[in-house]
Amino acid sequence: MVTWPPMALAKPFRALRYDVRTAGPLDALVAPPYDVITPSMRERLLAASPYNVVRLIRPDAPEEAAAALEAWRADVVLTREGRPAVWLLEEAFAGPDGLPRTRRGLVVRLRLEPYSAGVVLPHERTFPGPKEARLRLLRATRTKLSPLLVLHDGGLPGPAPSRAPDLQADLDGATSRLWRIDDTEAVRAALAAVEAPLVIADGHHRYETALRFHEEEGGEETAYVQAALVSRDDPGLVVFPTHRLASGPVPELDGRFRLEEISGPSEGLDRLAAIPRDRPAFVLVSPLGAVLAETDAAGADPLAVLDTTAVDSLGLQDVGFTASASEAADAVTSGRAAAAFLVRAPTVDQVEAVARGGETMPQKSTYFFPKLTSGLLLSPYDE
User: Fold this and answer.
1) How does pLDDT run across 314-348, given as a tens digit for each residue?
2) CA separation for the pair 48, 114 (Å, rounded)
3) What is the 8-class DSSP label of residue 330?
4) Helix (H, G, I), strand (E, B) or coil at 216
5) Quick one: which of 129, 153, 134 has its CA closest to 56?
6) What is the DSSP code (8-state) at residue 353?
7) Please, how many CA atoms are within 13 Å of residue 268, restricted to the half-sphere of its CB?
8) Is the dihedral of CA 158, 203, 341, 310 positive or negative?
9) By the 8 A CB rule, do 68 and 60 touch?
10) Stretch 345-353: mean pLDDT, rounded?
11) Which of 48, 116, 246, 269 pairs as cysteine with 316 (C-beta 3.0–4.6 A)?
12) The pLDDT of residue 249
């Protein structure tokens, strides 16, 4: 077995994965990441299979997840790969805009580094509650249950092998295909394309929780987190907006904004898309109609140019979020929201600029679509 450098940024791993001969079809076993699973979705996933990974990532108690994991391994519901490998991941999907895309990356063990080291960088702030819950789960299961989505500055992965994928699953309109790469030289070549600094696209709470767990435990076994590494130049990498819904009082828009009445949300989104990205802008939809709000150029500050920064500066109360502009407008029409604020998604360049500047974006500024599927590959802390 090949020994990889102890301090390597990325390493192959011996995946723990479902044996479909025992567990059943993979489509019934996978789930979205824990943080987007609603109560009704959880019930649907629980009903899909007694072995659905939701029992591990969103258990009633951490001890239940640990017991299920142990039992599934004993019953060969989950089986361990004999050789360390990296995995080529292809995700085929159609986004909220309806356009078909394919995002490609490598699933690896990624070395945990404090943000201060400048190797792995965040772009969002985190909250204590979710991290405490994930830490209890890590302590109980001692397994990396879901991958992070992480961007890197290196090149694209090589082409997929000509053979059929080793794993394939469909979830909510996205098809994930995985090919095992375990040849030593092929692994080296794949990992050589990965370049730091890396930016966490999705999974900040999981990363910081894993780092804390490693600080508790020490040693090389807990020094890595599972991650899907995607090149920032990947043509399938896309960020969608997250619009704001205000249930509380709608503030008056002050003199910072140039305001223009428009016919409705559809025209507003078209006009918004044409505004240069060196300034923030948004569309306010209220029972009184729709207004396009724009500011002057915001200079070089990567935070000041974001639409979400401008909206959050209004001091909204009882804020909700949705990725759907039509859903946001319908919430106003139906009276479920006092107003909607439609925004543009940050570009990948803007996300990187904020991360490299050592700052974090307002909550729910980015929506990297699709969310990574959980349950395809697990990674125990024993390597």
Assistant:
1) 989 889 999 899 999 999 999 999 999 999 999 99
2) 39
3) H
4) helix
5) 134
6) H
7) 27
8) negative
9) no
10) 95
11) 246
12) 85
- Token match 């909220």: residue? 96
Query: What amino acid is encoded at 194 in this protein?
Result: V
pLDDT in tens, 201-252: 999 999 999 999 999 998 889 999 999 999 999 999 999 999 999 998 888 8
Residue of 383, 324, 382, 378 lying closest to 69 (CA atoms): 378
Residue 253 CA to residue 102 CA, distance in Å, equals 40
Per the CB < 8 A criterion, the answer to whether 263 and 289 are in contact is no
Please tell me the distance from the alpha carbon of residue 338 to that of residue 287, in angstroms, as a whole number: 8
Are 276 and 297 contacting, i.e. CB atoms less than 8 angstroms apart?
Answer: yes
**CB of 295 closer than 8 Å to CB of 258:** yes
Reduced to 3 states (helix: H, G, I; strand: E, B; else coil), residue 285 is strand
CA distances (Å), 375 to each of 52, 163, 277, in order?
8, 22, 38
DSSP bridge partners of 17: 79
d(CA 355, CA 125): 11
Segment holding 140, helix H or strand E? helix 128-141
Element (H, E) at 91: strand 86-94
Q: Given strand 289-294, what is the order of strands in its sheet?
A: 258-262, 289-294, 281-286, 339-342, 243-246, 319-322
| pLDDT tens profile 281-306 | 999 999 999 999 999 887 778 999 99
Q: Contact 161/85 with Cβ under 8 angstroms?
A: no
3-state percent helix, strand, coil for the chain, nearest multiple of 5: 30, 30, 45
Task: List the domains of the chain with CATH numbers.
Answer: 10-238+369-380 (3.90.1530.10), 242-344 (no CATH)
List own/partner pairs for 92-98 with CB under 8 A and 24 or more apart.
92/174, 92/175, 92/177, 93/173, 93/174, 93/175, 93/369, 93/370, 94/173, 95/238, 95/240, 95/369, 95/370, 96/240, 96/323, 96/324, 96/369, 97/240
In eight-state DSSP terms, residue 115 is: G
Instruction: Answer yes or no: are the C-beta atoms of 214 and 112 closer than 8 Å.
Output: yes
Amino acid at 356: R
Contact 313, 364 (CB under 8 A): no
φ, ψ (nearest 5 deg) of residue 179: -120, 130
Go through 125-153 and write b for each residue having 16 or more CB atoms within 10 A of its CB, e for each that does not. ebeeebbeebbebbebbbbbbbbbbbbbe
How is residue 352 written in tokens?
Answer: 């990187």
Length of the chain: 383
